[in-house]
From TrEMBL:
<feature type="domain" description="ABC transporter">
    <location>
        <begin position="5"/>
        <end position="235"/>
    </location>
</feature>
<keyword id="KW-1278">Translocase</keyword>
<comment type="similarity">
    <text>Belongs to the ABC transporter superfamily. Drug exporter-1 (DrugE1) (TC 3.A.1.105) family.</text>
</comment>
<keyword id="KW-1003">Cell membrane</keyword>
<dbReference type="GO" id="GO:0046677">
    <property type="term" value="P:response to antibiotic"/>
</dbReference>
<feature type="compositionally biased region" description="Low complexity">
    <location>
        <begin position="309"/>
        <end position="319"/>
    </location>
</feature>
<dbReference type="InterPro" id="IPR050763">
    <property type="entry name" value="ABC_transporter_ATP-binding"/>
</dbReference>
<dbReference type="GO" id="GO:0005524">
    <property type="term" value="F:ATP binding"/>
</dbReference>
<keyword id="KW-0046">Antibiotic resistance</keyword>
<dbReference type="GO" id="GO:0016887">
    <property type="term" value="F:ATP hydrolysis activity"/>
</dbReference>
<dbReference type="GO" id="GO:0005886">
    <property type="term" value="C:plasma membrane"/>
</dbReference>
<protein>
    <submittedName>
        <fullName>ATP-binding cassette domain-containing protein</fullName>
    </submittedName>
</protein>
<dbReference type="InterPro" id="IPR003593">
    <property type="entry name" value="AAA+_ATPase"/>
</dbReference>
<feature type="region of interest" description="Disordered">
    <location>
        <begin position="309"/>
        <end position="328"/>
    </location>
</feature>
<dbReference type="InterPro" id="IPR017871">
    <property type="entry name" value="ABC_transporter-like_CS"/>
</dbReference>
<keyword id="KW-0067">ATP-binding</keyword>
<keyword id="KW-0472">Membrane</keyword>
Amino acid sequence: MTAAIEARGLTKRFGSTQALAGIDLTVEPGRVLGVLGPNGAGKTTAVRILATLLKPDAGTVRVAGFDVLSHPVEVRRRIGLTGQYASVDEDLRGVENLVMIGRLLGLSRSSAKARAAELLEEFELTDAGDRLAKTYSGGMRRRLDLAASLIGRPSVVFLDEPTTGLDPAKRDDVWEMIRTLVRQGTTVLLTTQYLEEADALANEITVIDHGLVIAHDTPDGLKRQVGGQTLEVRPADDRDLDRVTALLASVGTRSPEFPSPSLVSVPVAGADALTATVARLHAENIAVTELSLRLPSLDEVFYSLTGHTPAAPASPSTPGLVTEGAAS
């Protein structure tokens, strides 16, 4: 199977700053690769190179089967790109934004209008299609921006922090749109600093820091790499909190912590700790409302790998791109 995206030894320097120091990325067709990393790790630089907006200093890159340096036009015909901030023309109506992109991509006026109507319906914007984009909410602008990136029916889509600034409900809407794209066979490279987003959407995750790939695996694989599991117990009666804390201290590999009121958490080695805890809770007649054994969260993995806690994006991301097969 030919990879939809394949980069080998990708390097890029800006003056004295080494943005990329030889990264490898591979995404198989119809899959989602989540690219994680702290601010300044090199994520957006990598996306710009893959999308033909920047030339690498060294390395090879193929997207949709074409080399991005020797066949950039062919690559652009097959990709879509959406950056961190919606890049729509606020002085045009929603439908006019999409028709304009279609015309720039070489569609006839009738084909552009038909494709715009199709996407407005798919992204639940039909009723707002005749309104100026400046009247749209942030979530509506994001949906319009995503629709614009799909005008050319790209086989590969780059989403550079696509849900930045959206409330949780609108973020869920974007997640479902991404899942729909993948079900239709689209390949997605997703950069994000919302780790739950990568956990929910990505088949595999690559972690970049200081321009280097420092980890690559499935979400569960990364969690297992960090090692251990976490046992959490919430007693039904707060008066039992001290007894629960003492119990977990005896089975854990570190001192118990309290991630929320009345919830006691401790790392453990092996599933036997769960069995032992259940038996002791029963023996001591301690009722609980919550009892779980889980792998580390991606937040914990991220901190373990990079030494950073996840942070909200601090600067604008990839600018809009209009190409033969992609827009936005």
